[in-house]
Amino acid sequence: MKFLKKNILNIIVIVFLAVLFIFPEVKLKLKDMFFPVAAIEDAIMLQDSDMDIDLKGINTADTNLKNLKGNKLIFLNFWGTWCPPCREEWPTIEKLYNAKNDKVTFVLIAMQDEEEKVRKFLKDNNYTAPVYIAESPISAAVLPKVFPTTFLLDKNGRILLKEDASKDWNSKSVNNFIDTFTK
Predict the structure, then answer these.
(1) pLDDT at res. 40
(2) 3-state secondary structure of 109
(3) Total structural domains within the chain
């Protein structure tokens, strides 16, 4: 009994950390609750040259990123099958894609990856969000320094949001954020 009284705080911290490690979705929920969507205040406008990226479609048609500008918001995500945080956020991206693909163009670019590994990852997990591999250089304005990196761009190429970590992309705050720009 004395042991429990002396170490109760340590036990609580260890149990909390164990829950975060065992259930990554809890970590995503807590992150969204305490660190909601952070929009960039001084909005950066991407130029056509920044968006001139030839994209080879893995589960969709080939295109150039600049051709997608002007119609809808663009959810631009840089990820890799080799990246644990990228794989962690994929289920939430797929849910967001299923809910918002009528309002948002999804562009998920697999980086430093082999096409066959990407195809296998998508097939094994039944993911349908559009995935590409870049076939031309990526501008420094959007080239990620860490993975995953996600941008939400408006119809004109203005960066509304940039996230340099995994996130619950199907959270209420993200859905509300998207809805404010798609009404």
Answers:
(1) 44
(2) strand
(3) 2
